[in-house]
Design goal:
The complex is a heterodimer of chains A (467) and B (247). Chain A is an alpha/beta fold and 467 residues long. Chain A contains 22 helices and ten strands. Among the domains of chain A are: 43-289, Rossmann fold; 407-456, no CATH class. Chain A has helices at residues 8-17, 19-42, 46-62, 64-77, 88-101, 113-117, 120-125, 136-143, 160-171, 180-197, 223-229, 250-261, 291-295, 311-315, 317-322, 333-343, 360-364, 371-384, 390-403, 406-413, 425-432, 449-456, and strands at residues 81-85, 106-109, 130-133, 200-203, 207-209, 214-219, 233-239, 243-244, 269-273, 281-287. A six-stranded parallel beta sheet of chain A has the order 1-10-7-4-2-3, sandwiched between helices. In chain A, strands 8-5-6-9 form a four-stranded mixed beta sheet. In chain A, a hairpin with a 4-residue loop joins strand 5 (207-209) and strand 6. With 247 residues, chain B is of the alpha/beta class. In chain B, helix 11 (189-205) packs across helix 12 (216-229). Chain B is globular, with a radius of gyration of 17 Å. Chain B starts with a strand and ends in a 5-residue tail after the last helix. The chains are: A alpha/beta (467), B alpha/beta (247). The complex binds iron/sulfur cluster. Residues 260, 306-312, 335, 364-367, 369, 371 of chain A line the site of iron/sulfur cluster. Chain B: Residues 3-83, 128-221 form the Cysteine-rich domain.
Chain lengths: 467, 247
């Protein structure tokens, strides 16, 4: 069966109908964008850093097989077990095997978008392994059985009252106690025993360094450090595009990551993992899951430069007003709209159209991904692959024909019953109808510019047509 | 210099006074302007929707109409952006390349080519909020962009500063898209209308009596939102002010 297309417009309309949530969401993310701007102004070399970051990533991606193998060699030398996962299924199987071989039934983990991509939690749950998210926002989303709505702040669409209700259901706390400090404390109390007694820990990784075989995890809550070090078994899972060649490249990215994301100079914790702790073990899973295929796409491969800072989401006026869940995908916002179709073209075919192509995303992206140009190009690809709904496709087809024929065009805008051809008029009108729901139509005018010109400047102008 | 005037379809149909102001203004500035009567559209609506092959007929017609001019001027940033940056549904002949390289949005043409700064006939004793459309701002780059932290500049502001009596209101989010976005305005009605409402509120709260823009499509959308919400703002194209409109 064909997958249903994500109804972004419908989900966004529902999000907008909830005034308090909409206002909070828009303000919160806009505030992050403004803090990012303030940090940018403090670094006169900001644009240079963006160029450098982009060049490092493009170079790495152009030589990815070599750098991956170099990483594998060096990581192995450091005592890290390196695994390769072609797709989500392989990734999940590898994780389960590592855990089952050690009789582990509880796993604590910090935030990792790759594990969301692989839909890992249900897979492990079915095998008797309990996964507990240790990032506060991610834990809230886990308890509420929702995808993260933002790649940096996963529960940003929720108000404190929503969190209180989730905690009341799962932790038995007071549903009306919505003080953020109390809520954080409730989470701390619930998480601490789980962390202390977990059999294994899992993290993502922001960067992996080929020349050293080490990797870096950036968080603000320190939960990744607990997840990695307390249980003794540490599994780090990362997309193959996380690589940078040298340790000295890291500075470029670390300087920009948190500034772009939250507008803070650096994350609270920037931890370099170099190998297993004494008596412990460390695994790294290098996940492809469609990345090699994306690397082969001439117009879209640079989306692999993404460092998952979320700046494009924070600045996106559409994302701020529709909420991440409306994208119906692991990755939402502008970056989601250009990579989701590589996972499932039909299902996510609506997302590149959920944009005004305003270009703000491209301007904030710290690795200079031409996000809005890729949105534009995706539209072409999707239309070529017959992923545009029939009515809209037909309207464009007819409009295109009409615009090539001045005489018919003049007749059509004069209001004559003409050229609209094969498509029933009601289809056209019902497609255009939404304009008037919350907007007035433009005011009628006495005559078009064309008519005025012919009336007042007759004798002037070239080749006369129509009215 | 022979100037060809392109009046985009929605201006032709809904805002003829913008076309008239553009023509009169260019003539006041001594330009010899011709308006080819066979013109329709630049192809943007089809191309922006991904239906690039459906833009071919409009693009071919556009080239036939305008290849004989030294400069092609239009009071629309998004159309100028389409012709200059995306106009590739047809083979790139010399004529096509000539047209693409000589297409100007009105503000750029006045500011960069004619280099006018003074509009002695113009007086506009009102407080205006300037709306830079995303096409003019981020594609044609007629003003500095807040995301880049570049030294501030604004070509439309440079021109409007030559108008007597005009005052400016600065909205809190001057660079935020107003949400028109072509077919986005109907396909994503809820988001589009909300963005429009937020935009007009922002200008209203900043004390603007008018929103002025170089793009009538943004104006059409914002005006529709403001009128429905009962926000007492008025809307005017920059060509009208520069040509001496008083209100
Ligand atoms: S696309 Fe750019 S701005 Fe968006 S999350 Fe990735 S790195 Fe950040």
């Amino acid at each position: 069966m064909k997958d249903k297309r994500i109804d972004h417009a419908g989900a966004a309309a529902a999000f907008i109908a909830d005034a308090p949530h909409l206002a909070f969401h828009d303000e919160r993310l806009w505030d992050m964008r403004q803090k990012r701007d303030a940090q940018m102004h403090l670094l006169p070399e900001w644009q240079e850093l963006r160029t450098l970051a982009s060049q490092i990533k493009e170079h790495t991606l152009a030589n990815l097989p070599d750098y991956l193998e170099q990483f594998e060699r060096n990581a192995t030398r450091n005592g890290i077990h390196v695994h390769w996962a072609r797709d989500g299924a392989e990734h999940n199987r590898i994780v389960a095997e590592i855990l089952q071989a050690r009789g582990a039934t509880t796993l604590i983990k910090s935030k990792s978008m790759v594990t969301e991509e692989c839909d890992m939690r249900p897979y492990l749950a079915a095998r008797g392994i309990t996964v507990t998210e240790t990032d506060l926002g991610e834990r809230i989303q886990q308890l509420d059985d929702q995808l993260p709505s933002h790649i940096v702040v996963p529960a940003v669409h929720k108000l404190t009252g929503d969190v209180a209700r989730v905690f009341a259901t799962h932790y038995g706390t007071d549903p009306n106690a919505d003080d953020p400090r109390q809520l954080a404390e409730a989470q701390r109390q619930a998480a601490r025993p789980v962390i202390l007694h977990a059999d294994a820990g899992m993290t993502g990784a922001n960067f992996a360094v080929a020349e050293t075989g080490t990797f870096v995890v950036c968080t603000n809550e320190g939960n990744a450090d607990l997840s990695a070090t307390v249980p003794g078994v540490h599994i780090a899972t990362l997309g193959i595009e996380r690589l940078v060649p040298r340790m000295s490249d890291l500075g470029v990215f670390v300087r920009m990551l948190s500034r772009s994301a939250l507008g803070s100079p650096i994350t609270q914790y920037t931890t370099h993992f170099r190998g297993p702790q004494d008596g412990g073990e460390m695994h790294v899973i290098l996940v492809d899951n469609g990345r090699s295929a994306r690397l082969g796409m001439a117009d879209f491969w640079t989306s692999l430069k993404c460092i998952r800072c979320g700046a494009c989401m924070n600045t996106c006026p559409v994302y701020r007003r529709s909420g991440g869940l409306s994208y119906g995908a692991v990755y939402s916002g502008p970056i989601g709209a250009i990579i989701d179709p590589t996972f499932n073209e039909r299902k996510y075919s609506t997302l590149p159209f959920a944009s005004t192509l305003n270009g703000s995303c491209t301007n904030v992206c710290p690795v200079r991904i031409d996000i809005h140009d890729q949105l534009y190009k995706w539209r072409r690809v999707l239309v070529d692959h017959h992923q545009m709904p029939f009515v809209k496709r037909e309207i464009m087809h007819m409009a295109g024909k009409l615009m090539g024929q001045p005489r018919l065009y003049r007749a059509a805008i004069a209001g004559a019953e003409t050229a609209l051809g094969t498509l029933p008029r009601f289809a056209l009108y019902s497609w255009l109808n939404p304009w008037g729901k919350q907007r007035e139509l433009p005011h009628p005018v006495e005559e078009t510019f064309h008519a005025w010109y012919r009336r007042t400047r007759s004798g002037n102008g070239t080749a006369d047509t129509g009215r | 210099m022979k100037v060809g005037l392109f009046v985009p379809c929605y201006i032709d149909a809904f805002y003829p006074r913008v076309g008239i102001a553009t023509l009169e203004l260019l003539e006041r500035l001594g330009q010899q302007v011709d308006y080819p009567l066979e013109q329709t559209c630049c192809g943007q609506p089809m191309a922006n929707s991904g239906c690039n092959s459906d833009a071919a007929a409009a693009e071919a017609l556009f080239v036939r109409n305008f290849e004989r001019f030294d400069a092609i001027v239009m009071p629309s940033g998004s159309c100028a952006h389409h012709v200059r940056d995306h106009f590739d549904a047809i083979p790139q002949t010399d004529a096509v390349r000539h047209v693409r390289a000589h297409t100007y949005e009105l503000v750029e043409f006045l500011h960069d080519v004619l280099q006018v700064r003074a509009f002695p006939w113009a007086e506009f004793p009102h407080t205006v909020g300037l709306h830079n459309s995303c096409g003019t701002l981020r594609a044609l780059r007629t003003a500095s962009m807040s995301e880049l932290g570049e030294p501030p500049f604004s070509k439309p502001m440079d021109l409007l500063s030559g108008v007597r009596g005009i005052r400016f209101a600065t909205p809190a989010r001057p660079d935020e898209c107003c949400g028109f976005g072509g077919t986005f305005s109907v396909a994503e009605e809820a988001v589009s209308a909300r963005m429009g409402l937020d935009k007009v509120r922002d200008h209203h709260n900043a004390g603007a009596d008018y929103i002025v823009s170089a793009d009538s499509s943004c104006i059409m959308h914002q005006q529709g939102c403001a009128e429905r919400a009962g926000i007492p703002l008025r809307f005017i194209h920059i060509a009208e002010i520069l040509n001496g409109a008083r209100e």
